[in-house]
Amino acid sequence: MDTLRLILLIVHILGFSALLGGLLAQAGSPEKKVTGVMRDGVGTAFLAGLALVGVLEGGDGSVNHAKIAVKFSIGLVLLVLVMANMRKASIPKGLWAGLLLLAVAEVCVAVLWSPVHN
Fold first, then answer.
1. Dist CA 10 CA 13 (whole Å)
2. Cα 43 to the center of its chain, rounded Å
3. CA distance 53 to 109
4. What string of pLDDT tens digits covers the 118 residues of the chain?
5. d(Cα 1, Cα 7) in Å, to the nearest integer?
6. Which parts pass through the membrane (predicted)?
7. By the 8 A CB rule, do 15 and 46 touch?
């Protein structure tokens, strides 16, 4: 079970890395858009996160449900915004900045919210 948890955690981190990389790659460009890398990254991170919670719930580890609820909510908003704007030729800079802010907030919640495990 521990190996599966670690694999899912790595996939989850790689998914968010793809989302953040896709956002940051456009930082200097005047026109922003949702890319396939961003779509695949947020989808991978979301699904791997759901699977990770399932593995943690099924194992002997305790889960901080408040933290998971916050991460799920932010992740769902990111997923919906990315998917809703996927086919558009460009997106407003404010939406791009909002996506970046939400992605960074998601990482901050994951890292800074103290874990239940001792």
1. 5
2. 8
3. 15
4. 789 999 999 999 999 999 999 999 999 999 999 999 999 999 999 999 999 999 999 887 678 899 999 999 999 999 999 999 999 999 999 999 999 999 999 999 999 987 654 4
5. 10
6. 6-25, 37-56, 68-84, 96-116
7. yes
Integer Cα distance of 48 and 15 in angstroms: 8
Compute φ and ψ for 91, nearest 5 degrees. -125, 155
> Residue 7 corresponds to which amino acid?
I
Task: Fill in the amino acid letter for 23.
Answer: L
* Domain extent listing, the chain: 2-112
Q: Token pair of 85, please? A: 């704007």
Q: What is the total residue count of the chain?
A: 118
